[in-house]
Target: Thermonuclease
Amino acid sequence: MTLYMKALLLTLTCLLMLTTTAEAKRIPVTFDRAIDGDTLSIKQHGRKKTIRLLLVDTPESKKPNTPVQPYSLEAAKYTESLVSTCPLSIEYDTKGRYDRYKRELVYLYCGDTMVNEQLVRKGYARVGYIYQQKDHLKELEDAQRYAKQHQLNIWSMDGYVNEDGEGFNTTQEDRDKETDFVEQLRQALYRIVDAALDTLIKELMSNF
Model:
């Protein structure tokens, strides 16, 4: 066997091991019902339990003393339509299974498609509740950039997503405040960059 063939075989073996390891982390489950866009009831080994999708936040539809928020029902419907038609599995983050409220947090897969990521990419959820569990944070942030750039669903309403914290701005007054804050932040960044460029130009000119 040539050196090239040995290297190729070693590479393929390593890739196979990595794939097997990734798949081994996933635990098969079955769908019971969608509670809302980011919370579901599933069955694992015949027992029902509630899971929350990790690193995502959909608008509220069933939170006590909270009105139904825009796109909350659409998010729940999308989640249910997606997970009710495919083999499901869950994956836990390497940094822990629970949040501070003792809710079980998972990455949910429909076949090989991560449901968490699809919700964000379609604009039904925002990236949120970022604590120590961050295994797939980059993929979700990439998906959010796509949804925001294309103004999909929750991103189609100016100021609806609370970008200075968690959750959503339900009232028009709150959305106006959010829009004003984002614009003020943008203008502040422009001023900082402009001042930095002026300083750089002056330093360059002084060298001539």
